[in-house]
Amino acid sequence: MKFTLNDRSLIRVSGTDAKSFLQGQLSNDIDAIKSSQIQINAYCQHQGKIIAVIWVLKSSDGYLLSLPLDLLDIVKNRLEMFVMMSEVVITNETDNTKQYGVIGQKLSGSYRINDDQSIFIGVLPNSEIAKTGLNDWELSCIENGISEVYLSTTEKFIPQMLNLDIDEIGVSFSKGCYPGQEVVARLHYLGKAKRRMFKFKGTNLSVGDELIVDGSSSIRASGVVNRVALSGDEYLCLATLENAHKDDKIRLNNGTKIVRIVDE
Predict the structure, then answer these.
(1) What is the pTM of this model?
(2) Averaged over 129-135, what is the pLDDT?
(3) All domains of the chain, ordered by start, with CATH?
(4) What gap in Å lies between CA 142 and CA 202, rounded to an integer?
């Protein structure tokens, strides 16, 4: 199945300093990107909170950054602010280049996210048709544990809250400095990530909903929903949650009860 990802934007970063520039801005090791794969990165502010989760792809003249459309201006403007004297060109390719999500199919020229999902950039072959609805794509992302950050949740998570540190899927702890690196690395080496991302099911779920656990002593909500999709007559979501309360009764700020899905 193929889906037109019309909710995502695309930024091209090119120039002789493109690699070193991105290496100093994003959380993962840009040197390790393979030509046919997507590398997941967190773009953090100085306190380690994620501005956007960015999918980085190699292109013929640099790199392509895929991210939610509602964060395009924030991310592009911030990247441009740090270019300074570097030989880097940043362009918005959103209106010029289509992005397609591919599930359970090998499509020549696509970039692999995992064994089930990939992204195709450009014009599909004549025989290929893409769906316009995105719920099935979102559902696949949830099932594969792929987190997201939108305008409504920007700067609410650190990488550990979205499990981006596990197996270094979205964070490299050996690559060197980037904004927020000291905070992220300190938490990693202290081994004190108190909040993690889990799957839940329930009704009336929306991105940005807060998770409430009555037994929590935290002055903040116990977690936040970061991705939602409809599955049959109920919703599935990815949400952060305090580890200490993952087996407790959980409700949303609107009173709706939700249940954590324990993967076998």
Answers:
(1) 0.94
(2) 87
(3) 2-141 (3.30.70.1400), 159-261 (2.40.30.160)
(4) 14
